[in-house]
Amino acid sequence: MSKNLSKQDIIDLLPHREPMLLIDELINIKKLQSATAIMNVKKNGFYVQGHFPGQPVMPGVLIVEAFGQAAAALTASGIDKSEYDNKLVFLMSVEKARFRNPVIPDCKLELNIEAIRSHGRVWKYKGEAFVEGKKMADAQWTATIVDRK
């Protein structure tokens, strides 16, 4: 088990910045294998203000984005810094994404992610999202590490 990653640790690893940095913490890290990302879904988040007024719901595509950020942080924290410096992680595909229940602010979304396999700079992951133990969404996705231009 690796140490947990704070919001600042995640900022140091990922190129994402507010308001698009969605994950707040990475815990239960098993190096290059799995982790749980914590996302505090707030009523004043940019992603719920217009989706839907009076009955806010976190957009499903942003749950997928949070999965991707969690996977990027897991991978970046586990590989040599020289392999990750001046690189970006791009989403290549999303498969089997299912949205089972609406994510309603204010809540803590827990994203359990797992690296299924890697081949060179291409990684495949799967994840499940929960609020208070109830499954909200799940997906599989592929990402690649590319040189920053």
How does the SSE layout of this entry go?
Elements: H1 7-13, E1 25-30, E2 34-41, H2 60-78, H3 81-84, E3 87-99, E4 107-119, E5 122-131, E6 134-147
Antiparallel strand pairs: 1-2, 2-4, 3-6, 4-5, 5-6
Written description of the protein model:
The protein has 149 residues and is α+β, with helices and mostly antiparallel strands. It has one domain (7-147): Hotdog Thioesterase (Thiol Ester Dehydrase, Chain A, Roll), CATH 3.10.129.10. 20% of the residues lie in helices and 43% in strands. It contains 3 helices and 6 strands. The chain has helices spanning 7-13, 60-78, 81-84; strands at residues 25-30, 34-41, 87-99, 107-119, 122-131, 134-147. Strands 1-2-4-5-6-3 form a 6-stranded antiparallel sheet, with helices on one face. A hairpin with a 2-residue loop joins strand 5 (122-131) and strand 6. The mean pLDDT is 94.
